[in-house]
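Support request, please re-run this one:
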Amino acid sequence: MPFVCLPRNTVPNEPAFLRTLQGDRFFQLLILVGIGLSFFVPFAPKSWPAAIDWHTIITLSGLMLLTKGVELSGYFDVLGRKMVRRFATERRLAMFMVLAAALLSTFLTNDVALFIVVPLTITLKRLCEIPVNRLIIFEALAVNAGSLLTPIGNPQNILIWGRSGLSFAGFIAQMAPLAGAMMLTFLLLCWCCFPGKALQYHTGVQTPEWKPRLVWSCLGLYIVFLMALELKQELWGLVIVAVGFTLLARRVVLSVDWTLLLVFMAMFIDVHLLTQLPALQGVLSNVSHLSEPGLWLTAIGLSQVISNVPSTILLLNYVPPSLLLAWAVNVGALVYYPDRWQI
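Re-run finished. Output below.
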């Protein structure tokens, strides 16, 4: 999914929301695909809202507010700058940054973790001599491994968890072996790719300010929202989070890229229309009869063709939200990592 970019001929007084929609090429592509599919299936717009997984949309809405609040607070940037000076060698610093990226992605989602860690990594150029580009690559891999651990780490997990009936802890337990194996692999590679040479830190780099009140507000609202998700009351959780930020930090609500929700809604509708195509119904119905190795390869393969989130939406129409599916689409995400969820 491409990053949102504004066209040069944007009208200055045009609402920001509309400007973002005009610049989001992936959303425009989804609309065109939906229009095209509508010519080949029965035109029934009344069925489209039912095709949208509203649990996922509501959960994403709450997470987008919370993660934007954490991002705007500046806390992790300040904390990271203070902590990196404690590492004497390039290898130890690199492993700390990789572990930090993975940890943040478990509760901030993979893209927001990168939005926090990557600017800090770029700042390291002014603090010490370290191969920044190589480190960013490892961080991008680490957020994938970390985000697959929890139900809220990435969109495909939100989808699968919402339909699985598992508790928050139960989902983590089933994903822990895969996340652990991936992180051990990345840490081993990190150990080999970054030497143990001593680092010399420069002085004079100004530490940015952070907003303590916003940090504590985010923490409190995070706890409330996670409890609401566990109790299957995600809508009430979203209402509390939205009202909280509206009263305490309205800038958070205004800074969220709400067009991302429209992108997900369009994906759900497009996949619904795709499953209605007579030419594909026979082929897609065979997915439910695949063996476990067949489903594993199909899920990973689809992730390469249409990316991991649309492939998860499609496959959940034919197979249960199993451990195998959760592992497969997350492994597929390691190879194909959509631009919207990465640097």
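Residues 1-13, 336-343 have pLDDT under 50 and may be disordered. Residues 200 and 220 are 39 Å apart (CA to CA).
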